[in-house]
Design a protein that fits this description.
The chain has 9 helices and 8 strands. It is an alpha/beta fold.
Amino acid sequence: MSIQNERNMGTLKPTFLTYSRPLLCAMIQEKTLETAKNRIYDAHYDGAEAFGIQLCNLLPEYRNEESLKKLFGFCEGKPIYITSYRGHESQGLSDEECMELLLMGARCGATLCDVMGDVFGKAEYELSFDPAVIEKQKKLIDEIHALGCEVLMSCHVRCFFDEEKTLTWAREQIKRGTDVVKIVTEANTVEEQQVCINTIYRLRKELDRPFLYLASGKYGKLTRQIGAALGVCMYLCMDHYENANSKDQPKLRAMKAVRDNMLY
């Protein structure tokens, strides 16, 4: 029996840190419990093995423990990755308020919490090097770990990064205590696309923990389609496309077919 099958039967605690094959993670970017429930149920049927619930998209009336526990219950014991980014329905909130929502999610049953690399001190390329900010981030990561959750640190750099700069960002995340590295770069030429593919090899070879490396831009989607076959820890997928959803993320059904026919 695979690790994932045991987990779904409830014999193992949900985790993003061990897996027999890269996880198919369905991203949920909805404003209400009802629409989120529908998306989650559709994703179950299409093969989702984990869920990425973006709490920053929820309307204020659903940002309470009762609602979050109900929302996470729809995931039926599968691992839950949560984000609480700036923007969307959190527009205008302080970083401290965004992280309070993240901590609430941790208390309510989330598995993996996304800590922005520049939380508590907005910085270029979404990674702060301010010592005071770094100490606050480490304290937050310790608090999340104390709640029994795993921590991912994310940097959405919004431009192209070469291999060395990506490795530098990844190592900085690891120094702060993160369990999973996440870096989102851009690839707008074929040459940049090739560098992104090479970077996945470097990350797999040189890091000692799981990583989520993705690219946006004109030539970025290939990394999202084949990256997990090369070493990325999971596929971030969409079960449907609507105006508000991330079009860079591939369809869940398509990625299940790709993943299930790859050798690992």
